Amino acid sequence: ERTGAKEIRQLAKSRARIGARSCAVDKFEGIRAPATMIEVVCNDHLGKIVRIKCNTNDTIGDLKKLIAAQTGTRWNKIVLKKRDMIFKD
Question: Running DSSP on this structure, what letter comes out for residue 34?
């Protein structure tokens, strides 16, 4: 099994299980407002366009892992850009 594949599957399952009306609990911030689901469109400029549903409070690293689960690319090799700005983990 590839490195990180188990972690990616667990993250995808937890996102599907949580849904749009849950409260996320962070050990440093306490209870936050309910996260809303958004859809992010990712294009690799080779003809593959992927639509990812994620929460608004997900980190860029979480988003990369969700993209990796659908595309088959390792999450640490994915670079997310908007125009010329590169999003950091």
Answer: P
